[in-house]
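FAQ: What does the model actually see?

It sees only this:
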Amino acid sequence: MSFNSDDYDNMFEEMNKLFPNAPFSYDAEHFNCLDDVLIEEPYALIYHHRTCYCVGDKDPTPISIVINSYNGKNITYRNFYAEIEKKWDKDYEVCNHHFLEFISIKNNIIELEFGS
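And it is asked to produce this:
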């Protein structure tokens, strides 16, 4: 689906209203699929490897957060963002890249990729 600049700005604003304490910039296009199933499991591990050129010589521990579904069956995008907002530790921020660009899922692992 294609969005113009105003559509994208409106979706971003709505996401910001729903998740005002998100620790990173979410994918605004997810606003249109918040109640869609992200993973068909009652729990998942959110994982981010935290390896990036902007970290330099630091060797940060990967981020691992366990989230549970709200309905006991599956995890929606809304569930994902709400859990991230609650469980993401502010100390995780060592990288300059804060825009969620990609989510990949394998088994019960939701891997996040960020960009600038």
